[in-house]
Amino acid sequence: MLLPCLACESRFKPEEYFSACSDYDRGLDRVTWTCPICGNRDDLRVFTGELCFGAAGKGRFDVHDRVRVPGLRRHRHEVALDISLDRRHWHVPMR
After folding, report:
1. How many CA atoms are closer than 13 Å to the CA of 89, on its beta-carbon side?
2. 7 and 77 in contact (C-beta within 8 Å)?
3. How far apart (Å, rounded) are the C-alpha atoms in residues 64 and 10?
4. d(Cα 27, Cα 48) in Å, to the nearest integer?
5. Which of 12, 19, 22, 58 shows the greatest Cβ crowding within 10 Å of its Cβ?
């Protein structure tokens, strides 16, 4: 499975994609992702089986696009978000 950059339409393997995630905002349950190719920054939420892209506003996160990712899982911690897909895991710390 390849995951998209919504700006430049490049596609990435999960390990490339989730390694580019940073700055977990636990209050909005939001992760910042920066495209390794074009440098575009997207805000996204990780849910079981999908990525939701959108923007924060007025204390909430509005979803604009969804990408299904079968097998995707998440686990929230006080200071981080853990993402897992198949047998791989990524740790996204809070800012």
Report:
1. 6
2. no
3. 19
4. 18
5. 12
Structure tokens at 32: 């910042």
Distance CA 13, CA 1 (A): 7
Per-residue pLDDT tens over the stretch 43-92: 999 999 999 999 988 878 899 999 999 999 999 998 999 999 999 999 99
Please, how many CA atoms are within 13 Å of residue 60, restricted to the half-sphere of its CB?
3
- Residue partners of 21: CB distance under 8 A and separation at least 6: 31, 32, 33, 83, 90, 92
Positive or negative CA dihedral for 95, 41, 20, 66? positive
